[in-house]
Amino acid sequence: MGNYQQVYDTVTEMICDAKDLEMADLAPEMPLQQLNLDSLDYVELMVLAKREFGVTLNAEMFINQPNMTLGELCQSLADTQK
Question: How far apart are CA 54 and CA 11, in angstroms?
Fold first, then answer.
């Protein structure tokens, strides 16, 4: 099992950089759709997951779970981290 806090910090840092936000603007219970991520942001998330955590994400995951929260995404990455 991976380290949730490490995953959360890495993912939120990427989102903050992409969306010009502060860490304080994000919370684990925040739905991803509330972050107004565009398709390139999702691709960047998928690349980050593969590079940093060895986890392959696919677009269907985001499409099939439109109400996924930031915390749920990070927990999923932490649980499947290699």
Answer: 14
